[in-house]
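Appendix B. Chain record.
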Amino acid sequence: MRYLPHTSQDVRQMLQVAGVEDLDRLFSTVPKDCRRQQALQLPAPMTEWELGKHMDCLAASMGTARISSSFLGSGNYEHFVPATIGALASRSEFYTAYTPYQPEISQGTLQAIFEYQSLCARLLGMEVSNASMYDGASALAEALLMALRCVRKKSTLAVSKAIHPHYRQVIRTYFEPMDFQILELNYREDGKTDPAGLEDAEDLAAVALQSPNFFGCLEDLGAWGERIHAQNGLLVASFSEPLAFGLFKNPGSQGADIACGEGQSLGISQSFGGPGLGLFATSKKYMRSMPGRLVGQTRDRDGKTGYVLTLATREQHIRREKATSNICSNQGLCATIAGMYLACLGGTGLRELAALNRDKAEYLKAELRKVGCKIPFEAATFNEFVVRYPQGFKNRYPDLIAGGILPGLPLGSYYPELDDHYLVCVTETKSKSELDQLVKEVAR
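Structure tokens predicted for this chain:
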């Protein structure tokens, strides 16, 4: 571990170039209450080995999924990542690749993106996929902007309350300065979105649903698609767990016009919450309204296969007022990892993994019912579900966390009406003994 600190002479030379006398003057534009007034209280100097041991001790003080039995999901999921992914993704030609600003000399990067796009379109059942967005939340917000471009002269969007709360917050941030109406659709007693909110809706451009939704419930996208298409609007299908499409119908097969969501489950580590990967796909007729980049395959004059940026309708490539999006970069490395992961699993592996996730979650759901827990939503679920633990469990929740068990996400802060409910997630990483241990602790 090496350091290259600025010497006093370095600092003086930089201040001289900047035209200020000292560091206080350099940072004078920063409000005083935002600046540290005292020097950092740093420990005494350490050797490289001492510092390494100190960092290990700090890391050990934080609970992680690997040393805890975590049943948290809610948009960021613990999955096994094949060793091949780390070995391939860490190769310098992948790890250092950046946005292909000069496509003619970025053939490897373009091919990797093209393969990712092909696999993503197949997974989601759509005709075209872009080179990725920042994350699932921004992908959904961009999808709604795209829907407004495709369905002109309409200004109302319907958004399900069963969509991830963070995604809905990003939507509000996007649309707050704009003159569009956001209609929020409530969820029913079975955990799925209630279509009753559309009865009086006029000027409807699109409906946004998440399936599996935030509660883990599978939405009937086909019925929703028929309903919104009858009103000449678009169906935007979001998701936070794409592995579900290894077992259940994908958005494209159910009539979705735009499919978008989070791809973190596809071989990308949780990494304390980021980075993520925004999957985004649509049909050909809406392709020119799609944000981001689209890589295509062609042949040069010698007949050799080549890759090109077919579309790049972003503010860096065309006039800003004509751009479909101000997002400048795709998640190149994360998209490459997702492509590797899907290629490693294949169709059969994806189905088997999805079935394993579903089966383990259903086992825990059934066992919790046996010890007096309530499962309020009766809709079919994937990976995660809402549970109402026995009375008084809220007082025991901190004790379970202290004992290394995270028994789910409390929903009260997102849905006040579900104050004593928890969102529980089970993936292939959870053993039967861990599931049984949770049931045992709940039954005490």
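Further analysis of this model is presented in Appendix C.
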